[in-house]
Structure to design on (208 residues):
């Protein structure tokens, strides 16, 4: 009787231990499944394709600006079969240039259109630019494009100064030649008069 009771107690202990083990395994398996589901959801979110647009800003070579106020050319390619009206945004990377406003342009179908963005140079040097286009509702169409601008506004001032100096030099030279020519003409006109006066005075003296 005691042996049967001991065996029963031992069997219950083994069954209880096995139940606890299975419960732990089940919980761990559920946790692993939940984590895997979360990772799958995040992966699906990250790999979700963003909408692609057939209109974009075309990166170009370095833009050189040689005046204080000018127009910044931004090339926009439209691969749609119809014209698209967009807003062009350009932001300078430092304080050497000022771009005061966003412009609106209409890009014809299947063409590359050059938008002219007003820009004011504040200092010479390199200016990194970031440009993008949006719809009228503010939806950004594609990623921003980085452009490079080099400002050499002093070149324009030097050219203008040199031009005015050249004009002034030519004016002074022309004036000098004109005055010299008039002086020679005056001298040539005065010569015969003096000689005729001398001849007349001589004849008068002979009569006397």
């Amino acid at each position: 009787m005691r042996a049967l009771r001991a065996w029963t107690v031992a069997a219950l202990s083994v069954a209880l231990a096995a139940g606890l083990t299975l419960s732990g395994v089940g919980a761990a398996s559920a946790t692993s499944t939940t984590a895997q589901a979360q990772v799958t959801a995040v992966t699906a979110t990250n790999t979700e394709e963003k909408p692609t647009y057939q209109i974009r800003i075309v990166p170009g070579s370095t833009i050189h600006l040689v005046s204080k106020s000018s127009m910044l050319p931004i090339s926009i390619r439209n691969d749609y079969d119809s014209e698209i009206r967009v807003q062009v945004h350009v932001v300078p990377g430092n304080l050497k240039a000022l771009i005061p406003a966003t412009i609106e342009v209409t890009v014809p179908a299947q063409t590359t259109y050059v938008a002219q963005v007003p820009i004011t140079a504040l200092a010479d040097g390199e200016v990194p630019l970031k440009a993008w286009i949006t719809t009228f509702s503010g939806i950004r169409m594609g990623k921003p494009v980085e452009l490079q601008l080099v400002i050499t506004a002093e070149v324009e001032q030097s050219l203008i100064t040199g031009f005015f100096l050249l004009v002034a030099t030519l004016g002074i030279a022309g004036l000098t030649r004109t005055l010299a020519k008039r002086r020679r003409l005056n001298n040539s006109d005065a010569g015969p008069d003096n000689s005729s006066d001398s001849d007349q005075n001589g004849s008068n003296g002979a009569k006397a």
